[in-house]
Design brief:
Elements (H helix, E strand, L loop, with lengths): L8 H27 L8 H34 L7 H6 L1
Length: 91
């Protein structure tokens, strides 16, 4: 039987960073839509939450980008090219 080898930490961090980037981007867009163009359709607490979510998501976006850069650098130091996203998802 074939034993599954664990994914190196750099690849796990790359996967986490990619997920963080995509999730923060989607939530930022949703928060922007709720806070500005469609604000009249939502109550005040929802609008306040959307306004607060915008800078919080920006922070997570920046953190995800820095994690991505650091993990890609670690992968390069290991002497291997970065795996494609679909290969990372299979691990």
């Amino acid at each position: 039987m074939h034993a599954k080898t664990p994914m190196p930490p750099a690849y796990r961090y790359l996967k986490l960073a990619n997920t963080m980037l995509m999730l923060s981007l989607v939530v930022s867009i949703a928060a922007f839509l709720v806070a500005y163009p469609y604000a009249s359709r939502f109550g005040l607490p929802t609008q306040v939450t959307a306004h607060l979510a915008i800078p919080i998501c920006a922070g997570f976006l920046k953190l995800g980008y820095v994690m991505r850069l650091a993990s890609q650098e670690a992968i390069q130091r290991m002497g291997t090219a970065a795996l494609p996203v679909h290969a990372i998802a299979q691990h």
